[in-house]
Amino acid sequence: MRKLTHAEFLGMRRFDALDGLRAFAAVIVVFFHFAGPRAAFLSGWIGVHVFFVVSGFLITTLMLRERDRTGRISLRDFYLRRIFRIMPLYYVVLAATAVTQYRNGQGWKLLRGHLAHYATFLNEYDLAAGTPFLHSWTIGVEQKFYLVWPLALILAGAVALRLRIPVALLGIAVLLVPFSAAWESLAVHYTVLMTGALLALVLHSRRGFALLAPLTHPAVGAVVGAAFVVLHLSVPRLTEALHGQRHTVVVYGVGVALLLPSLLGPGAGRWLLSRRPLVFVGERSYGLYLVQVLAASAVFGMAPKLHHGSPAAGLAVVVVALLAADVLYHRVEQPMIVLGRKLIKRLDARGAAGGPTPPAPEADPAVEERAPAPAAV
């Protein structure tokens, strides 16, 4: 067996192993919320940063490949894809949460005062403890990233393509500057997102890919995978050694970024995380995360004797949330994604009829990003 070539990477139509990685992250996040101290070794709170790295990598790869195909990055198409991929399911679950909490006096009182922030994706600025839908704050973080990063990437490319990687490095450096406590608490998450974006820029470049290509060799990939497992299990000790979560998150984000190339090559990691059950969960991870609180309410309502904060409770919530997420995947998520693609095609057709500008082709399914499953820390 051999390492992956740059041409093979650019020609990859699917990144199934990344769905399997999402499945792992989604499950440990839910266990963090509902499985109690016996699941603490999973360090589920840090699972969101797996999604951040993967999301930064995928959306940047999507834009770079679009630039190669069409000569430009369409902001209109990018934002429309994000809108139809993220917002419909988000608002459906938010509405369901509001309806169920309306019958719960205290829960509705908590939720009502924060709905304006949730409805406008300012979730990360409203972290009142105990609020239903509190876990959605990371969606607010990602929405800001989706808004700003494509603009920065286009501006850098407009000046010179070779400035893209320096711009990403500069962005990470600025995010790591501790301007204030509030800045530090949010900037660390954007740092992880930018780490994934930087990985995409490096791998898209022929020279950059050559630097990381050894990680795609099966033997090296096995070592990287084992090292990542050790890193993940060492998160509690690392957090203590680094005096807090902020620096741990940065180190962990780099670890995830180094893991991703090993999951692209023909190694054991790619084989394991590409198994259909894991891909199934990963494809539904966004819905699974969004409905976890509703699923927990259903689980504890149907089984009041089930011990809160136990592994059995965590597993039950995962199962119920996955069942609900599968329904939402087929009834809301996928239909709205298709509707968004049809709208883009319709707008392209109108543009072609009204002028000489050729229509931009549909997004490359090789890297069409699925909405991430955020988590709370």
TrEMBL record:
Regions crossing the membrane: 20-36, 42-62, 83-102, 143-160, 165-181, 187-203, 210-231, 251-273, 285-303, 309-329
Write down the InterPro entries for this protein, in alphabetical order: Acyl_transf_3_dom (IPR002656), Acyltransferase_3 (IPR050879)
Coiled coil: which residue ranges?
none
Annotated region (Disordered), positions in chain: 350-377
Give all residue intervals belonging to the Acyltransferase domain. Answer: 16-329
Top-rank taxon, per record: Bacteria
Q: Which terms in the Gene Ontology molecular function aspect does this entry carry?
A: acyltransferase activity
Q: Which Pfam families match?
A: Acyl_transf_3 (PF01757)
| Protein's name according to its UniProt entry | Acyltransferase
> Would I find Manganese among this entry's keywords?
no
Instruction: Kindly state which keywords UniProt assigns to this record, in alphabetical order.
Output: Acyltransferase, Membrane, Transferase, Transmembrane, Transmembrane helix
Q: Which residues form the signal peptide?
A: none
Task: Supply the PANTHER family for this chain.
Answer: ACETYLTRANSFERASE, ACYL_TRANSF_3 DOMAIN-CONTAINING PROTEIN
Q: Does the keyword Protein transport apply?
A: no
